[in-house]
Amino acid sequence: MYFYELLIRINYRMFSFNNYLYVVVFYLFLLPQLIAGDKIVLTNCNIISCADKKLKNNMHIIIDGKTISKINKGKYKGDSNKVKVIDLNGGFVLPGLWNVHMHLTALLPDPNRVQDNESVASATIRAGLNAMDGIRHGFTSIRSVGERDYIDVVWRDIFSQGFFMGPRIFASGEAVTVTGGHRGDVEYGSDGIYQIRKSVRERIQKGVDWIKIVDVEMLPDELKSAIETTHSLGRKITSHSREPATYRSVLAGVDCIEHGYGLTDRTIKLMAEKGTYYSPTIICNLSDQYIKEREIRLAKLGFSTDEQVVNGRTMVAYADERSQEHAEHQRNALKKAVKAGVKVVIGSDSTPIGEIGILEIEQFVLSGVSEIDALIAATRNPAEMCGVLDKLGTVEESKLADLLILEKNPLENISNLRKRLMVIKDGAVVDLDYPNGLSNYWDYYGKKKYRKGYLEDAENQAGFKRGLVSPSEDK
């Protein structure tokens, strides 16, 4: 292993500060076991290309550098001395997965109050941990739809430059919304068409790939100005939305709908006609009944052996618990959208990217979507939505080698996505075990003591505590 010290210089002016932030990230390991550029052959495998709905048996794939150069029938019979041949023993090769509704630094719930007055440096490191956990679960591409301080832009560039092994990121920066937007959460928003236009332009100037808006509280002229300005600058726009604002946004030309709370048949029909993508985030719209249904199913399949993961994903689910009526409506809306021909995409909203992303794909199937359509929603559709279907999203010759290799067939049971053999990004094999520290991302949801050193001693002497740890948690 080779370890590097990376000094990341982030312009504070980009984040509305006055100075420069220097973040030192120690022990940076270039994760690939095989350096991109070597020729690799994956033989004795089955391919779910997601370019169509067919399963191709007994195939081999030749990866030359970062791209898939050949896909042929039968086992590889060439000179194994000149290439690295990997026998997959009947494994299943898919395109790398996508998670296209993600907030890298979000924690819901946040029992340890990690986000209370959290520094940019701390949030940046957490975001990187989340993203790198995601790629080890097979998510080779993600879209961030609302992120503080342009942290998603920073990590996008770091991953693309190869300093860390992480997913491709399509970044949006912070969402554009009006004052009082997002159910009243936004204290200082962008009001009126001039401020909306300025906010969109500022984000694009700072390097975002997408614009995220919250349409619910926007007036029609504000909505129109956001869409018009975004498209005039060559970007796409997505909207956190609920009816009746959803219909208005689709009619005005938004590219993607997030959540689509209360989605109506009229809006679904319009989305199909206009080619609007739909990210239902169904995993964040579960009732108590559906959460229990999910956990019973996973326990029967043997995916409940890690108590920390089970407790974490259950805690996350109940933090977003919905009524049975609401959960049923959203589940039915997803089925109707797929039937109507709306292009649906996988987005988990909650973190961590990996486990919750897999739960979202599973939830598509539990909602009545076929396994192959759920996989297409996690691969081909998001690549097309992000304008990179010519390079990503399917297993085809001349495309980039972003691949997920599974032990068993996910078309027979979608939860076979959990039986990962290998993840490949840009032709490089991802180390599924590294980094393997003393803690993992789920520890952010558990009871954990963060105070140490002088501050802890001072609080002990004072006889009371502030911040992250309550007296009861300290015992």
Report on the structure:
The chain has 475 residues and is an alpha/beta fold. The chain folds into 2 domains: 97-398, Metal-dependent hydrolases (TIM Barrel); 445-475, no CATH class. Helices cover 33% and strands 22% of the residues. It is built from 14 helices and 16 strands. The chain has helices at residues 120-136, 151-160, 181-184, 192-205, 220-232, 245-252, 265-274, 288-301, 307-319, 324-340, 353-366, 371-377, 380-385, 453-462, and strands spanning 3-11, 20-29, 39-48, 55-64, 67-73, 84-95, 97-102, 139-144, 168-170, 210-214, 236-242, 256-261, 277-279, 403-406, 420-425, 428-429. It has a 7-stranded mixed β-sheet, with no helix packed on it. The protein has a 4-stranded parallel β-sheet with strand order 10-11-12-13. It has a 3-stranded parallel β-sheet with strand order 7-8-9. Helix 1 packs across helix 11 and helix 7 (265-274) runs parallel beside helix 10. The longest helix is centred in the N-terminal third of the chain and has 17 residues, at 120-136. The two termini are 39 Å apart. Mean pLDDT is 88; it is low at 1-35 and 466-475.
